[in-house]
Amino acid sequence: MLQRPTRRRCESTAMGAIVLDLRPGLGIGPFSLGMPICEAFAQIEQQPKIYDVVHVKYFDEEPLKLDIVISFPDHGFHLRFDPWSQRLRLIEIFDIKRLQMRYATSLIGGPSSLATFIAVYALFGPTFPGIYDKDRGVYTLLYPGLSFAFPIPSQYTECFHDGEAELPLEFPDGTTPVTCRVCIYDSSTDSKVGVGSLMTKASIPPLPTGSLYMEEVHVKLGEEIWFTVRGQHIPFGASPQDVWTDLGRPCGIHQKQVDQMVIHSASDPRPRTTICGDYFYNYFTCGLDILFDGQTHKIKKFVLHTNFPGHADFNSYMKCNFVIYSPDSERNQQEADPSKHRITPSTKWDQVKEILGDCGRGAIQTQGSASNPFGSTFVYGYPNIAFEVMKNGYIATVTLFKS
After folding, report:
1. Which residues are CB-contacts of 102 (< 8 A; sequence separation ≥ 6)?
2. What is the pLDDT of residues 327-359, one digit of tens each?
3. How far apart are CA 95 and CA 391, in angstroms?
């Protein structure tokens, strides 16, 4: 698991607890369950004085294996994002003394209001018996979309048994336990979420009907891309007007200064130093760039982004949920496992080579450590398609062109 601090970090950090509205089953403060990771970063950027120290944690070697975590160490809570969809599935408060929560008109947590069992029960009311984990010595009190974990001192563990247990309102010596962890999660599945293995049970809220987030984008090599929800087909050679009609106004437009791959093209007589008149339409929310020829104003390339952490473009784009079929996939439709002949953002480079064949050595792409601390990537080319691959073997970008 790698931990990457964001570029913004203040030298002095206010240690007083912030106050965030608690919405059981929905979220806390500006962070809502199910939100894409880029929206969470946008909220952070809007309040730099509050969220001045932010860490991003992920499993570098297998980024789809563990959550992507945005951590606020000075405020005592994590945001846990599902690594495939990159949507918020769990909010975990690990230091209740650093974060004060507002529920209705009452405050709980922070340095001035201990989140004791009595205080929690008084604020949130009656509930069913919770779950006791004897190995961890932790009792979890459950409400819809919300759970509180309480450590049970070793001298009192014999009072409880694994599984459902009576409420530990007070210990025999008259003391009451204090919350050590709070989890906020989607309550629609009626899952019991808490510390340890219970944390994995938090699921992502379902997307609303017709949502365009993570819409599948099917690729027909050398011909077109197809958006499966909105039903739009965008072929090579389409005009900017066609694209505006199908996808709407681009998020950004920028000129391509130099075509860095011209030097590798024997069929292109332009000198390496020629300024390129081509221009990009950037659709960041689709994870897509479209390159237009500067003279004909027709589409010549599509660039699809996977938005994996550990790449220089992470958080610049939402993830493009592309599906690329191999040229011979139509001949293999009867096979039991059609996924063997298609490439998605989850496909590793070794699997790509099994599908498309070995294409030889890749070209090294680097921006230098100053602008890209994550190191170089490798570009591999096939007819009508090129892959930018990270060192962990996952695809960073896919460039589509017409040979």
Report:
1. 19, 20, 21, 22
2. 765 555 555 556 678 999 999 999 999 999 998
3. 35
